[in-house]
Design goal:
By secondary structure, this protein is of the alpha/beta class. The protein is about 30% helix and about 20% strand. A hairpin with a 6-residue loop joins strand 8 and strand 9. Helix 4 crosses helix 8. The two termini are about 10 Å apart.
Length: about 250
């Protein structure tokens, strides 16, 4: 069952090497993310599952040790999702299958776990697609919660990308209201409110967190967790939210 969850934004700019000179602008967000991960560790989970948005080739499971990269953002910087699994005994033949790279959302999570020296449990990743319907997301979450006796989720996703004129999606007057409701729901661990988020509106506002948040909602249905909102801001016109559920 689900015993704890952390919700963090997933912009590659969260990684200082990617942000370069702009890195200090997200120091408060990074600190909040570290605090949220600390809540996960304190819950002593048997397994941590990282959930984030992914394009088609990044969807599905990503095992512990999967590699992520920020080379596409001009930085020769790689990460691994948790510690790499040891090679099985007697495996004397090299595995020629190409390694499937983590999508950016999970690569940011891998960086965050490295930064906080995660060692509380094994880690696995799951990339979900933006078009996934709310009830499908919830069922994914229910299945994840049944993986082990004590499951924790690290949920990676941004709110709207339409908060200002210079935002990636330009200014949309609906964005502030959507983000405010998402922040309230995440801060209150309000499962019903997360499930009620409008899928079409979220897509129009370029919300990267809608599907991962609804996966969390499904996982938390019977968990009776309490939430706390740790960060709520919109640098660069994109809503970044950090919450911890325990």
């Amino acid at each position: 069952m689900l015993v704890a969850a952390a919700v963090c934004p997933c912009p590659p700019l969260l990684v200082p090497e990617v942000a370069a000179g702009a890195a200090p602008e997200l120091d408060a967000a990074r600190a909040a993310c570290s605090d949220a991960v600390a809540v996960l560790a304190a819950a002593r989970p048997d397994r941590l599952v990282v959930v984030g948005l992914a394009e088609r080739d990044g969807r599905g499971p990503h095992p512990q040790g999967s590699r992520g990269s920020f080379r596409g953002f001009g930085v020769p910087f790689d990460v691994r999702l948790g510690r790499s699994e040891p090679e099985p005994q007697g495996a004397d033949q090299p595995d020629d299958r190409p390694e499937r790279e983590l999508p950016p959302s999970l690569a940011v999570a891998a960086w965050l776990l490295e930064r906080t020296a995660w060692s509380a449990s094994p880690v696995e990743g799951l990339g979900v697609g933006e078009p996934l319907a709310a009830e499908q997301c919830a069922q994914v979450g229910r299945d994840l919660a049944a993986h082990a006796e004590r499951v924790a989720l690290l949920v990676m996703g941004d709110a709207s990308a339409c908060r200002t004129l210079k935002a990636p999606g330009y200014l949309d007057e609906r964005a502030a209201g959507f983000d405010a409701e998402a922040a309230r729901a995440l801060g209150a661990a309000d499962v019903a409110a997360l499930m009620a988020l409008d899928v079409r509106l979220a897509a129009e506002l370029q919300v990267a967190g809608r599907a991962p948040w609804q996966v969390l909602a499904g996982a938390a249905e019977d968990a009776s967790l309490r939430g706390q909102l740790l960060y709520d801001d919109a640098p660069y016109g994109v809503g970044y939210l950090v919450a911890a559920w325990s």
